[in-house]
């Protein structure tokens, strides 16, 4: 995962240098390129958009099926089974989109879902990046 982020960030900086007309022989640091372009790192853009999409889904009306699925996924992430005899499959669980949301905002899935109900509160979490 770290290798993917480094490659994506490298590509992002390469594109910024090309747009700004900076050649490799100009010896300009990556930090200076970011300052000149005024763009954030690609990782912070991804985090912000991921949290924005989660907030959009969390604020949907309760009768929308996507909201019900999100609620069940958050409950399962917080180890609340959807029904009494439900069990998770054996093996290591995959890292899901919801895991990324929890790591981005630093909250449990249920707390993130409750915070996202209020747009002003959720924007504070999304604006950290």
Secondary-structure map with pairings?
Elements (H helix, E strand, L loop, with lengths): L1 H19 L9 H8 L4 H17 L6 H13 L19 H9 L3 H8 L2 H8 L3
Helix pairs in contact: 1-2, 3-5, 3-7
- How many structural domains in the coordinates? 2
Structural class: mainly alpha
Poorly predicted ranges: none
The amount of helix comes to 55-70%
Overall 3D shape: elongated
- Ends: how far apart? 19 Å
Computed over alpha carbons, the radius of gyration is 19 Å
The fraction of residues assigned to DSSP E strands is: under 5%
Order of helices and strands: HHHHHHH
Number of helices: 7
Beta strands, count: 0
Largest sheet: none
Chain-averaged pLDDT: 89
């Amino acid at each position: 995962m770290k290798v993917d982020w480094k490659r994506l960030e490298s590509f992002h900086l390469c594109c910024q240098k090309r747009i700004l007309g900076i050649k490799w022989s100009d010896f300009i640091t990556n930090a200076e390129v970011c300052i000149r372009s005024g763009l954030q790192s690609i990782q912070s853009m991804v985090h912000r958009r991921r949290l924005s999409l989660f907030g959009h889904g969390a604020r949907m009306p309760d009768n929308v099926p996507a909201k019900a699925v999100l609620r069940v996924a958050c409950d399962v992430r917080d180890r609340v089974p959807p029904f009494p005899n439900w069990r998770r499959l054996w093996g290591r669980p995959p890292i899901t989109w919801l895991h990324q949301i929890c790591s981005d905002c630093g909250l449990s899935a249920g707390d993130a879902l409750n915070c996202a109900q209020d747009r002003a509160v959720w924007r504070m979490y999304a604006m950290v990046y």
